[in-house]
Design a protein that fits this description.
The chain is mostly helical and 516 residues long. Helix content is 82%, strand content 0%. It has 20 helices and no strands.
């Protein structure tokens, strides 16, 4: 299996989407800063996004893709299965969204209890959440269709869809700025409406793409068939296991709502570390799940181990330097991207602290994405769910304890520690079940990667100290270009040294038969 070509396709589209996403967040920071309006907006947009990631990245990708992939050799059987799931999900989502819209005040009390002290803040969150939540309907159906496209190895379209969200929201922000809309509450509602419309646009594009491939979905009166039962039997534990990172973030948001600006700090830091997580863990996971499922169906044990080892090795080779780089550049990144207008120096310092802690957990976040796939491809969702539950309970306990002493920083620490616990549990169990057999070269390579990553930071420190540094006397665009320069030369230094030390052998990842 060649994992590089589809990985580059997905990572390329993801990178473009994240660049637009950063532009969107820069404009949001300029428009709302890190105060009450921003906190309300971020809490409201988290409602559909967290449920989307739990449902779409959990139940739909984890349960649907392996089941659909194993039926794909028989086109009629695969089509029947997919249409039954789409139809049932269509009606189920209408019911779920309707119930949540009615119960929204109670949900806000549950997920953001700190907002109950202010009627103005509560009412704004309520209005924004009711605008945003129907997005869950559109994006969940879109995710199912993307599962079909990925299983058919049409990765690019599915990976490019998030770009639409950012383009719609950026357009709305330019509309707000160009028309001089000073009512920040009204501006927040306009921005949230653009978010909702982007969900509809994504769904329509996916329907058209699937129709061209002969997989047009159909809507009719729902019936609970064997396919539906089998799907949901896997889906319920998958919801928790696949969305564990989001559940931990949700826990953090609930607790952070008791501290002013804390929700915003966590949101902005989360946006930064999500970039390497998406480029590495999520992208590799998208490619790994359907391909690993196919090989497991064929019972090709040798190739299964090759695929798994290549994926885990590549993930760590990329995640470790990204983690160390984020820690070193955290303050510069936040300052360059967000510090302007209502987002001040104190906000930069606070957000960079959170980012550094999240960065320490990046290898764990990435490993969770990869290790869970080893279970999901074998249609085992119960074990990852148990580990996810242990992680969530640990996160809740640590967050509550640490928040009392060190505030929002404690939430970030709890999230990172609980994620490492989840990764360790998954790794140990995958070895015990013989799902994974680590190649002899991997531990040595990881040690070398850590050394090279530290050398990369020393190299960047030398450049920043003696040649070129980011400072407030430069314009925003100049500082951005300097930051981009740091990132590019850091990556170049890392790749060159890794190549010289024989850590990275690109040809191994193109060679289907060689265990790297």
């Amino acid at each position: 299996m060649n994992i590089i070509k589809p990985l580059f396709q997905i990572s390329g589209m993801t990178l473009i989407s994240r660049i637009f996403g950063f532009l969107r967040d820069i404009l949001i920071a300029a428009c709302f800063g890190a105060g009450g309006i921003a906190d309300a907006f971020f809490v409201a947009i988290k409602f559909p996004n967290i449920f989307r990631r739990i449902l779409a990245e959990g139940a739909l990708n984890i349960s649907f893709v392996p089941m659909f992939t194993k039926k794909i050799d028989n086109r009629d059987t695969a089509k029947k299965f997919y249409r039954e799931i789409f139809n049932f999900l269509f009606w189920l989502l209408i019911l779920v969204v309707s119930i949540f819209e009615l119960l929204m005040p109670s949900l806000i009390y549950l997920f953001a209890p700190g907002f109950m002290d202010s009627d103005e803040k509560f009412n704004l969150v309520l209005d924004l959440a009711r605008i945003s939540f129907p997005y869950l309907f559109f994006i969940s159906l879109t995710s199912l269709l993307c599962g079909v496209l990925n299983s058919l190895e049409k990765y690019t379209l599915a990976a490019s869809l998030p770009i639409l969200v950012n383009l719609f929201m950026i357009s709305a922000l330019f509309f707000i700025f160009n028309n001089g809309i000073s009512d920040t509450e009204g501006a927040a509602k306009i921005l949230m409406s653009s978010f909702l419309v982007s969900g509809l646009a994504q769904l329509l594009i996916c329907i058209y793409a699937c129709q061209r491939l002969g997989y047009l979905p159909s809507i009719h009166y729902p019936k609970i068939s064997k396919n539906i039962k089998d799907f949901f039997k896997l889906s319920f534990p998958a919801m928790g296991a696949g969305g564990i990172t989001q559940i931990n973030i949700l826990v953090g948001t609930i607790i952070a709502s008791f501290e002013n600006k804390a929700v915003s700090y966590l949101y902005y830091a989360d946006r930064i570390y999500q970039l390497p997580l998406a480029l590495i863990g999520i992208s590799i996971g998208i490619v790994l799940l359907p391909n690993l499922s196919k090989e497991i169906k064929k019972n090709n044990s040798q190739l299964i181990q090759v695929i798994q080892n290549k994926s885990l090795e590549l993930s760590l080779i990329l995640a470790i330097p990204a983690s160390i780089g984020l820690i070193y550049l955290s303050n510069d990144i936040i300052m360059v991207l967000f510090e302007r207008y209502l987002f001040d120096t104190n906000d930069t310092i606070a957000t960079s602290r959170v980012l550094m802690i999240f960065a320490l957990g990046l290898p764990a976040f990435v490993c969770i994405k990869i290790l869970q796939i080893l279970f999901f491809a074998r249609e085992n969702t119960s074990l990852p769910m148990r580990f996810a539950l242990i992680s969530v309970i640990t996160n809740i306990i640590l967050s509550i304890i640490l928040f009392q002493y060190i505030g929002y920083v404690g939430i970030a620490i709890a999230t990172t520690l609980s994620s490492w616990l989840n990764a360790i549990l998954l790794f140990r169990k995958s070895l015990k079940e013989n799902f994974l057999k680590i190649s002899a070269s991997l531990p040595k390579k990881i040690f070398k990667v850590i050394i090279v990553s530290i050398l990369m930071i020393a190299f960047l420190f030398t450049i920043e100290s003696y040649i070129l540094d980011i400072n407030y006397s430069f314009t925003g665009i100049v500082n951005f270009l300097i930051l981009l320069f740091y990132i590019i030369i850091g990556i170049m230094f890392y790749c060159i040294v890794c190549s010289k030390m024989a850590i990275i052998k690109i040809q191994d990842f193109f060679n289907d038969n060689k265990m790297s």
